[in-house]
Amino acid sequence: GLSQYSSDPRTEWDLGTYTTRDQVLEAVRNLRYKGGNTFTGLALTHVLEQNLKPDAGARLEAEKLVILLTDGKSQDDANLAAQTLKNMGIDIFAIGVKNADEAELKQVASEPLELTVYNVLDFPLLSNLVGRLTRVLCTRIKEKSNKENAGSTVKDIPTNMGPQLSPTDLKISAVTSKSMHLTWSPPLRPPKKYRIVYYPSRGGSPKEVILDGAVSSLRLSNLTSHTEYLVSVFPIYDTAVGDGLRGVTSTLPLSSPRSLRVSELSHNSIRLSWEAAQGATQYLVLCSAAPDGAED
């Protein structure tokens, strides 16, 4: 599967789209380059939410590997998103080209870094990595598979990632200019934890909250006013992630003062009064002389 990203990630094809090597190579040849910014954190979140789901071809029993290819420094928090994937047992390999930040590559990648971090000066040099990277990836898959087969709890998790492992009925209420309240119905099998991801739909760094699996509500605060937010709720199990719930809503605009009144005029002063704006902690009053000929 492959996703391409700038300020907004885009899935080019899912894990289950092609079934042969030639089909994948043909898809790569037909790939259209996507220019723009470098929001790596948003891209990694997209991979988790969209590309590593059963609907996209992710098999519960299969090892999960993410290969990040980037030619720049991330403009959002890539480390937080990467840590979430790694905490779920997903291996990340980081490959930098040209202007990539090697320190960031090492933060994002899984251990051991000598096998998972690569950096080359230009795109043609990537061909030199193919043989070694292929061997490393195949070895990593075999090692992890052998460990799990020796004493795994994967068998305890059903392969059906449907309603039994997925919450339902996301409701967003009590929306203000700075906050909103989320509630949902838990799945039949309670998860170990919930991961809630939220960010402005027009771009911005994703933020996340981790909750205990026994909790099924959350108040999001410190939001930006008059902004549309995308919200996702994911149930996390020991060896799997259930299908997420998604919602979208907009925070309210900040309230304004109303009914401005002028009184107690003198030769050098006036008194102003108005109806308070809800939630305001201060007011800024600007005053200037009207231009010549304008109404006083």
TrEMBL record:
Its main location: secreted. The keyword Secreted applies. It is found in: Secreted, Extracellular space, Extracellular matrix. Residues 1-133 form the VWFA domain. Pfam families: fn3 (PF00041), VWA (PF00092). Coiled coil: none annotated. The keyword DNA damage does not apply. InterPro entries: ECM_Assembly_Org (IPR050525), FN3_dom (IPR003961), FN3_sf (IPR036116), Ig-like_fold (IPR013783), VWF_A (IPR002035), vWFA_dom_sf (IPR036465). Residues 166-255 form the Fibronectin type-III domain. Keywords: Extracellular matrix, Secreted. This is COKA1 protein. It comes from Anseranas semipalmata.
